[in-house]
Amino acid sequence: MLVNIHEAKTKFSNLIQRALNGEEIIIAKDGTPLIKLTPYNPELSKRKGGQLKDLMHFDPDFDQPLPNEVLDRFNKD
């Protein structure tokens, strides 16, 4: 569907709905096509791991229970 700018301004909501329903909407100036109105579909990229490789280091015992003197500090009333 080809519509001029003036008509597009007055029927914008309707044109958006038509584009969302799959219709091709071309907005023109003096009959010359300028813009195609299409639904926004974000491109999702696949997640990749490894960006922090060799940037983070953990001691081998990082997940061991905390000593009692440290735990006691959290349990004070």
Structure description:
The chain has 77 residues and is α+β, with helices and mostly antiparallel strands. The protein has a domain at 2-37. Helix content is 29%, strand content 18%. It contains 3 helices and 3 strands. A 3-stranded mixed beta sheet has the order 1-2-3. The N and C termini lie far apart (72 Å). 0% of the residues are buried. The mean pLDDT is 92.
In short:
With 77 residues, the protein is an alpha+beta fold. It has helices at 5-10, 12-20, 68-74; strands at 2-4, 25-29, 32-37. β2 and β3 form a beta hairpin.
Please give the share of residues in helix.
25-40%
Low-confidence stretches: none
Per DSSP E runs of 2 or more residues, the count of β-strands stands at 3
Mean pLDDT: 92
Strand order of the largest sheet: 1-2-3
Distance between the termini: 72 Å
Largest sheet: number of strands, sense, barrel closure: 3 strands, mixed
Q: Which structural category do the helix and sheet elements fall into? A: alpha+beta
Rg of Cα set: 29 Å
Strand content: 15-25%
H/E series: EHHEEH
Helical run tally: 3
Give the overall silhouette.
elongated
List the helices and strands and how they pair.
Elements: E1 2-4, H1 5-10, H2 12-20, E2 25-29, E3 32-37, H3 68-74
Parallel strand pairs: 1-2
Antiparallel strand pairs: 2-3
Protein traits:
77 residues, 3 helices, 3 strands, alpha+beta, 18% strand
